[in-house]
Design brief:
The protein has 446 residues and is an alpha+beta fold. Helices cover 67% and strands 10% of the residues. The protein is built from 15 helices and 7 strands. A 5-stranded mixed sheet has the order 3-4-5-7-6. A two-stranded antiparallel ribbon has the order 1-2. Helix 10 runs antiparallel to helix 11. The N terminus is likely disordered.
């Protein structure tokens, strides 16, 4: 195996310097990390942005409410909500750039038809519009508080930490011995001797080291606000997910219908057409050449058996009778018996799940066993099925070469989409060299 000596190249020296930095404790690294400066910039920019949003939201809302007695009030309120949506997009972009918080855009307006009133109605009906108006109002007091805390800790921390470097300015230009800590008519306390200067610097060091964590705690609240008020609601996200899953189900059903039509056209239908032609020829030869006619009938009999077997295989691919009659245990055992490698099947279920879930589980295992037969070069495989709370668990393992992936266009990717359509999950663990373990999780829905 080749060994890389990092210290021999410029890249290696850079790597070693980076590794040395990583050896510093997190508390000492934090004030100098890019993350701290990004979060501090977010807090500092948050105040002017919050003032802009608050002024816009309050002004436009008040103007719209004041004009509601006239026709203009409703469009003005709609414009206020629409403007808050635009400012919310600005805030999502700011959070994405500085906090690395990737918040999805809220659901688009559903106007249904063209026209101003349709747009106004869609703006008022959109829950995200009102949530972003609420964000514009609530964010200002929090932005003021976080700005004050962050600036105070950061400025006082660095000022006290660097006090030994600039305390000489007071006696030279200020006419006093040092920074005044306390003073009244009778006496004053100045930070001017070496001990006091050292203590001041140590306190500044503590403030400086604590500031990144305080700023991070402040931005955690901002993350919650951005996620909760500027992103899509859980209900709308669920609706989008269900619409996507419905599209997957429709596409899968259409693909299955095309496959069945192709199998019928190219398989059983073609054989039956040939069989009808052979029987017609045998009928014509029956009087003049009975032996040839008998031979042709015998061949047609073989074609009938082949066509029947193809129809049985096709029916099994649509929905096997053994699954309906005897459940997953018997159906998966039948599938395993047709695999090219020895398969051990263990099914531990207290009862049968819903028929639709049972069918998806059957076809999932069938597809995985076909992949093992075609691609894995395995010597053995196992299938385990059990119930965990309200989930049906499937696990197929083989000792083949591994390397299975769920990249776009692969069979496993299509299988994952089919499971996702019913709130299922597919997890593939297939390192190069094997073994491969594919775990599927389905809702029980008994």
């Amino acid at each position: 195996m080749a060994t890389t000596r990092y210290g021999e190249t410029g890249y290696g020296r850079e790597y070693e310097r980076y590794d040395e930095r990583r050896r510093l404790p997190a508390g000492l690294r934090a004030p100098f990390e890019a993350r701290h400066w990004r979060e501090l910039a977010y807090v500092l920019l948050g105040l002017p942005v919050a003032v802009l949003m608050f002024v816009y939201a309050i002004t436009m809302t008040a103007l719209g409410i004041g004009l509601v007695v006239t026709f203009l009030g409703v469009p003005v309120l709609a414009a206020a909500l629409a403007g808050c949506r635009g400012l919310g997009a600005l805030e999502r972009a700011r959070a994405r750039a500085l906090l690395h918080v990737d918040v999805a855009d809220p659901e688009p307006l559903r106007t249904g038809r063209n026209g101003l009133m349709a747009w106004v109605g869609a703006v008022f009906k959109s829950g995200s519009s009102w949530r972003q108006l609420l964000y514009a109002v609530l964010h200002l007091p929090w932005a003021v508080f976080s700005f004050a805390v962050a600036v105070a800790f950061w400025s006082y921390g660095w000022a006290m930490l660097t006090y030994p470097l600039w305390f000489w300015l007071f006696p030279v230009y200020g006419g006093q011995d040092g920074l005044q800590l306390y003073g009244d008519e009778t006496h004053a306390i100045y930070l001017d001797n070496p001990f006091e200067i050292t203590v001041t610097a140590l306190i500044g060091l503590l403030f400086t080291l604590a500031t990144p964590w305080i700023v991070r705690a402040l931005t955690m609240v901002d993350r919650v606000l951005v996620h909760g008020l500027l992103g899509p609601s859980r209900l709308s996200a669920r609706v989008v997910e269900l619409e996507s899953d419905r599209g997957v189900v429709v596409d899968t059903a259409a693909a299955d219908l095309r496959r069945i039509e192709r199998d019928l056209h190219d398989g059983a239908q073609a054989r039956l057409v040939a069989l009808a032609m052979d029987l017609g020829l045998a009928k014509e030869k029956l009087a003049e050449d009975p032996r040839a006619a008998a031979r042709m009938v015998d061949e047609a009999h073989g074609e009938v058996k082949t066509a029947l077997q193809e129809l049985r295989d096709l029916a099994r691919g649509i929905h096997p009778a053994v699954l309906t009659d005897r459940g997953l245990d018997a159906a998966l055992s039948a599938v395993a018996s047709r695999c090219t490698v020895p398969v051990t099947v263990e099914v531990d279920l207290p009862s049968r799940p819903a028929p639709a879930i049972e069918g998806i589980a059957y076809f999932t295992v069938s597809e995985l066993l076909q992949n093992i037969s075609k691609h894995s070069r395995a010597r053995s495989a196992t299938v385990d099925v059990w119930r965990a709370d309200s989930r049906l668990m499937l696990q197929v393992t083989d000792d083949g070469v591994g390397g299975a992936q769920t990249h776009a266009g692969s069979g496993l990717a299509g299988l994952a989409e089919r499971l996702d359509a019913v709130d299922g999950i597919l997890v593939v663990d297939s390192p190069a060299g094997g073994p491969t373990t594919v775990t599927a999780e389905l809702p029980w829905r008994g």
